[in-house]
Amino acid sequence: MASMMQPQIILLKEGTDTSQGKAQLVSNINACTAVGDVVRTTLGPRGMDKLIHDDKGSVTISNDGATIMKLLDIVHPAAKILVDIAKSQDSEVGDGTTTVVLLAAEFLKEAKPFIEDGVHSQNLIRSYRTASTLAIEKVKELAVSIEGKSVEEKKGLLAKCAATTLSSKLIGGEKEFFSTMVVDAVMAIGNDDRLNLIGIKKVPGGNMRDSFLVDGVAFKKTFSYAGFEQQPKKFVNPKILLLNIELELKSEKENAEIRLSDPSQYQSIVDAEWNIIYDKLDKCVESGAKVVLSRLAIGDLATQYFADRDIFCAGRVAEEDLNRVAAAAGGTVQTSVNNIITEVLGTCEIFEEKQVGGERFNIFSGCPSGRTATIVLRGGADQFIEEAERSLHDAIMIVRRAVKNSTVVPGGGAIDMEISKYLRQHSRTIAGKSQLFINSYAKALEVIPRQLCDNAGFDATDVLNKLRQKHAMQSGEGASYGVDINTGGIADSYANFVWEPAVVKINAINAATEAACLILSVDETVKNPKSESAQGEAAAGAMGRGRGGGRGRGMRRR
Ligand code: ADP
Ligand code: MG
Questions:
Q1: 98 classed as catalytic
Q2: What pLDDT was estimated at residue 168?
Q3: Contacts within 8 Å (CB) and 24+ apart, 418-424
Q4: Which pLDDT does position 464 carry in this prediction?
Q5: pLDDT digits (tens, 9 = 90+) for 335-371
Q6: From ligand 1's centre to the CA of 426, what distance in Å?
Q7: Which of 159, 200, 420, 471 would be 442's cystine partner, CB 3.0–4.6 Å?
Q8: What are the boundaries of the region Disordered (predicted)?
Q9: Is 394 a catalytic site residue?
Q10: Catalytic residue among 16, 97, 130, 303
Q11: Closest residue (by CA) to atom 19 of ligand 1?
Q12: What pTM does this model have?
C-alpha cells in the first residue's frame, strides 16, 4: 500500500524516449557493424565500387570510403560517429578512409561477445587503448624512412606510394601513368601547404590517357565578347596583369540621377563616362601587360580596345584560378589601375589558348615561381571523371604525406598482420581478462588482409594461415609479407612496392580505436520528443529496441 502513496518522479519531458544498458550498447554495435558491412567490399585493388543515387537524381560512383559514408546519409546516432572518422581521416591524411571504418566496426564486433557476457565496457576500453598505443609504437618502429635519397630516386619511391593508392580505384589500370603525374604535380608545388595550388580540371570526352599535366595554371576560357577573336592567342614571356575591377562601360541608367539645366551639357556627361573607361584601359595598356585577367567582367568595349592593341584579356576568371595565376606567375591582384608598377605584373614562359576536347583552355606554363600545377583530366562519362578526380586527390594527399613524413610501411595487410602478431605475443605476458581483450583487438586487425582476399575472391582462411606462419618466423624476415593480389598467395609487399605512408596506418588505428571506445562508453540514448520526427523512421526503429524504452522513468546515470 505504501508504494501506492509514493508520488511518481517525472524527470524528463513527456514523450522522451530513453534506452539504456547492455541492450543499448549491443544495438549500437550492431548498427556500426552494419555500416562496416556496407563499405567492406570496396577495400583494396579488387574492391568493388558503389553507385549511390540520391533523391535529386544525381548519381555518384565511388570507391572512396569518405565519399560513400558522406552520401549514405546515415541517421543512426551511433553509426554517425563512423561517418565522422571517415571524414576526418580524409581531411587529415586523405587515404585509408575505408580502412578506418572497417577497423572501427571490427573492433566493436570483437567486443560484442564480451559485452553480451556482462563484461564492463570500461575494462574493454582500457585494454583497447593500451593495445592501440602499443600498435602505433610498433608501426613507428617498423616504418622505413625514404629520407636521404636523391631526387630521382625519391620520385620513383613516391610514385610507388601513389600507385598503391590508385590501384584500388577505377583508374587503377592506368596507375603508372597517373602516379608519375601526381608526383610531378606535388613536386612542382614544393613545400607549400596550400593544396589548392594543384588544380584539377575536368574535361569530359577523350581517353583518360589524354589527361595531361600543366606545370602552371590552366583554366577554361571565360565568357568573352565580340572582338575576342581578333586578340592574339599565344605569347612568349608576356607580362600578366591581374585585376579585380570591372572594365565595362557603366551606363547612366544604373542608380544615377543627373539634373541638367542645359541639354547641351548631356553630351559632356556621356563623354565623361567614356573618358573614365578609356583612362582605365590606357593605364592597363601602358603597364606593358600583354595578358589582362580580371575577376570581374571585361566588357565588349574593353575587349575590342585590347584586341586593337594586341593584348589578350579574360574577364570573370574564377577567384581560385586568379589566385593560382598570381601564385605561379608572381603577380599581385590589383583593385585599381592607378600606379601599376612592374612589380605587380606576373609573367610566364608561354601563355596560350588551346583547344582541349570540346573546350578552350587558357594555359600559363613555365611560371617563374613554379609553385603550381594543373592536372587536366579527360575521360568518358562525368561520373568517371569525378571519381578519377577523387582518386587523384587521394594520391596527391598520400604523396604529400610521404614527402612530409617520409616513412612508409608495407601495405596489402602486411603491417596489420605484423602488429596483430606483436599484440598477440604481448597479450601472453599479461595476466587477467585484459589478455583476452588485447587478443581480440589483435584479431580485429586481421580484417584488413582478410577483406583484401575476400574482395579478390581468394580463400581468405588459406591466405591468412600462410601469412600468420610467415609473420611468426623467428628471424623476422616474413614481417613484410602481405596478400598478393595477383596470384592469390602471399608476397613481400616491400619488394612488390605496395607501400603506404606510415601516417595513414597510424591515423587509422588511432581514429578507429577512439571511435570504438566512444561507442562502447555510451550506455544510454535519450531522444527528446522534438527531435523524434526529424530523426526519421530508421533511427527510431534501431534505437527503440533498447531495454527500458519507456518514457522518462527511473533515470539511472553514472
Ligand atoms: P582506403 O580507402 O582505406 O584507402 P582502399 O580501397 O584504397 O581503401 O584500399 C587500401 C588497401 O589496399 C590498403 O590496405 C593497401 O595496402 C591495399 N592495397 C593497395 N594496393 C595493393 C596491391 N597492389 N596489393 C595488395 N594490397 C594492396
Ligand atoms: Mg586508398
A1: yes
A2: 78
A3: 418/138, 418/142, 418/471, 418/479, 418/480, 419/135, 419/138, 419/139, 419/445, 419/509, 420/445, 420/446, 420/471, 421/468, 421/471, 421/472, 422/134, 422/135, 422/138, 423/131, 423/134, 423/135
A4: 93
A5: 888 888 888 888 888 999 988 777 888 998 888 776 7
A6: 27
A7: 420
A8: 529-558
A9: yes
A10: 97
A11: 164
A12: 0.73
Question: 18-22, 127-131, 294-298: which range is least confident on average?
Answer: 18-22
- Residue closest by Cα to atom 25 of ligand 1: 412
Task: Say yes or no: domain 17-145+410-524 is CATH 1.10.10.10.
Answer: no
Asked if 516 and 36 touch (Cβ cutoff 8 Å), the reply is no
Which ligand does the CA of 90 lie closest to?
1
Domain 218-253+265-375 superfamily per CATH: GroEL (3.50.7.10)
- Domain range annotation of the chain: 17-145+410-524, 218-253+265-375
- Quick check: is 279 catalytic? no
Which one of the ligands is nearest to 168 CA? 1
* CB crowding 279-303: b at 16 or more within 10 Å, else e: ebbeebbebebbbbbbbeebbebbb
Q: How many helices (H) and strands (E) does the chain have?
A: 18, 20
Helix (H, G, I), strand (E, B) or coil at 191: coil
Q: Which of 98, 374, 407, 525 is catalytic?
A: 98
Catalytic (active site) residue 184? no
Taking only the tens place, the pLDDT of each residue in 27-67 is 899 999 999 999 999 998 888 888 988 888 888 888 888 88
What does the block give as the cell for 61? Answer: 560512383
Ligand 1 contact via 451 beta carbon (within 6 Å): no
- Separation of CA 128 and ligand 1 centre (Å): 24
